[in-house]
Write a structure and sequence with these properties.
The chain is an all-alpha fold. The protein is 83% helix and 0% strand. The chain is globular.
Length: 465
């Protein structure tokens, strides 16, 4: 899809066309997640701690994802706004600058994680067998980090340009490699849960190789020169300005799992396995949200660069309605079929009973959180990640985490009370998001705030619209 059609065409068809390839790629990622969980469960279907160990590691894996999302978001926003504003200087230096940032971030994460893996897993509630399995899984998962962060640079460029079919293909390549290696490493090589971690690392490496091959051919508005001299500190700074708040945002979400895990394991340790089972399968319903969010980043980002406030507003509204309609239908189907799905992965009656309690309340919470995610996407892609960060921090730490604590230790002191209070906490968060969106557009219209379109404005140019 060319940039002219993205900036001028009818919004709904464009959002659909941009999101469908991402949706297809994420379906493959979901396939990996489900197959990975299934293979881990097959090591010993009667052992509830095996699947639970991946839930224990997930908050740490979310830190890797946080860095990845930050780089993708920062690069995508920069590219989309530069295309919308017709600026080529930032585009020419984006790839090398992003790769430099990815390598530095990878080194920091790997050193920290290898040094403090066990204390961190204990902090997240790991004890006994679940800690043992979690440690095995994490150690072999860590090589994923540099492949994931370097891929995030290329994914961000593709997202900013609207070339989502290559994003889809990269996810497919990584998933196929991962799924093929899971049984070989887990069972044939006898690595157990560690084999699942290594398969994930190799799968991410395969996806990166595909992306490098894509950018070695003509077709992108962002050229890769493979020269260290092409690293631009102003461009790195602009990626960080937008991307770092997104990374912190996702990091805060990861840290919140300390509280959730602690509260749930204090009530009943096996709840963590039930919650992990629910969360893995919930991705079936959430994939359209992430794919539409990716499409909104392209459309709203290019509109922001061009100063087209009406198109920014219309694309945000259309994306929200589309997300709620599609994901809401899938969440309903998930609730109705959840017990049959859960039995494919777990035979422990206690795990299944607790998952049955969790499912309807968490699905309802997710439904009312979807518009919130569209607001934060709009803010971030327009270059206002700080506002997105503040909004999300309030949602998590002023509403959701206190709700979990209240449900666990004050009202009811059961898994049912936790789920009910978390569900109720979504409503003030949604009201806050709608208020923030209205204030954002009011500020743009009045000139109190302006979209930044340059990493560093050259002499004689303002760098804002």
């Amino acid at each position: 899809m060319n940039n002219s059609s993205i900036s001028k065409g009818a919004i709904l068809p464009i959002l659909v066309r941009l999101s469908v390839p991402v949706l297809a790629g994420q379906l493959f990622n979901l396939l990996y997640s489900l197959v990975d969980t299934w293979f881990i469960a097959r090591i010993d279907p009667s052992d509830p701690w095996l699947v639970g160990s991946t839930g224990l590691v997930f908050p740490l894996f979310f830190i890797f994802l946080a860095a990845s999302f930050g780089i993708t978001g920062g690069v995508s926003s920069l590219v989309a706004r530069a295309i919308g504003a017709g600026r080529s200087s930032e585009l020419d230096r984006t790839a090398e600058s992003g790769m430099f940032l990815a390598l530095v971030a990878s080194a920091i994460i790997l050193v920290g994680m290898y040094a403090f893996a066990t204390p961190l897993l204990k902090l997240f509630g790991g004890v006994g067998k679940i800690l043992e399995y979690g440690r095995q899984y994490l150690v072999w998962l860590l090589p994923t980090v540099p492949f994931m962060l370097l891929s995030a640079v290329f994914t961000g460029i593709l997202q900013g340009e609207g070339r989502t079919k290559h994003m889809m293909a990269a996810m497919m390549v990584g998933t196929v490699a991962n799924v093929a290696l899971d049984p070989l490493l887990i069972f044939v090589a006898g690595m157990g849960v560690a084999g699942a971690g290594l398969a994930t690392a190799i799968g991410n490496a395969a996806g990166l190789v595909y992306l490098i091959a894509v950018f070695s051919r003509p077709g992108s508005s962002v050229e890769i020169h493979w020269k260290p001299s092409n690293v631009s500190l102003p461009v790195v700074g602009e990626i960080l300005r937008v991307g770092l708040p997104q990374s912190v945002l996702n990091f805060l979400a990861s840290i919140s799992f300390i509280f959730y895990n602690r509260v749930m394991t204090d009530i009943d340790p096996i709840i963590l396995t039930s919650f992990t089972l629910y969360s893995r399968l919930e991705q079936i319903a959430l994939i359209p949200c992430w794919s539409i969010s990716s499409a909104l980043s392209t459309v709203a980002g290019q509109a922001a660069g061009a100063g087209d406030l009406r198109r920014m507003r219309d694309s945000s509204r259309t994306a929200t309605v589309l997300t709620v309609a599609v994901c809401g239908s899938l969440l309903l189907g998930y609730v109705l079929s959840s017990q049959a799905l859960f039995r494919l992965f777990q035979t422990d009656a206690g795990v299944l009973a607790r998952a049955a309690v969790i499912t309807p309340w968490m699905a309802g919470s997710t439904l009312f959180a979807l518009p919130f995610f569209m607001v934060t996407t709009l803010l971030s892609t327009s270059g206002f990640s700080g506002r997105s960060l503040a909004l999300t921090a309030v949602r998590i730490y002023a509403f959701n985490v206190p709700a979990c604590v209240l449900g666990g230790y004050v009202f009811g002191k059961s898994i049912e009370s936790i789920m009910i209070v978390i569900f109720l906490s979504q409503f003030p968060a949604l009201a806050l998001a709608n208020f923030a969106r209205a204030r954002f557009f009011s500020g743009l219209a009045s000139g109190k705030i302006a979209v930044r379109v340059a990493a560093r404005a050259p002499s004689g140019e303002t760098g804002a619209v």
